[in-house]
Design goal:
alpha/beta; Rossmann fold; two-stranded antiparallel ribbon; 9 strands; 39% helix; globular; NAD(P)-bd_dom_sf; quinone binding
Amino acid sequence: MSATDRLNTIKGHLSGNFPTGMLTGEVAIITGSGQGIGKSCAEVYAREGALVVVTDIDAAKSDQVAADINAAGGKAISIPGDVLDAAFPEKLVEGTVSAFGKINHIVNNAGFTFDGMLHKTTDKQFEMMLAVHNTAPFRIVRAAAKYLRQKDGANKSIINISSTSGLHGNIGQANYATAKAGVIGLTKTIAKEWGGFGVRANTVAFGWVDTRLTRAKESGASIEVDGQKVSLGIPTGNRAAKVSPFADIPLGRAGNADEVALSVLMLSSPMSSYVSGITLPVTGGRGI
């Protein structure tokens, strides 16, 4: 697609003359899309006409999201699996191409937290965060190289999900903050190496978004990794009763999964055809 074609696509969409969506016929892999932000991304990409590959460690959730998209008139398949499994990236990529013939977009969203104060963090806690947030995305992108590194004029993007913890650090998250900072370096390298093939690579750094990672830890949300239960969420037991957790957010609230998914969609769309190598903070103004 030429620059003129892309511009006409944008104009047509904004004028209401492009009802089938900005990503019509394009193929998007979205990891961790069985729930939360990943699920919202899968849904908004599908609404914009993308052929979506839903993938999550929880097969039932992955299958359900794909089924819901199809029931709503979109097109999706489910390829569930564990991104920490070294064999899974190849399975995911080849399964995508077998079903849809190509790949246009990869959203590396899968991840979780494994919090602890630095002096109490174990090697396993630290290394697991690097594995899920750095090694897994690297392997998926590498597996897709032969399909993306082509000068075909297609709309192609890689979006890696980071966090404000990766931008500013965070108490109790030495492992997570290190991994999320690494996401930015990986993304910029992809942008420089693959830009010549028309691949745009960008990072989205989320702030406080209402998901199981930011809700009260006391609610009991958890994930099982290598047979170990990892509690998710933010401890609230010592929080002063009258202190708002959103006091430093200019918009005064948390984001929700559906609205922040649109920031990811934007970076895959023709609207961002000349945007690559950036880190987009999606924070409600927090950190300015």
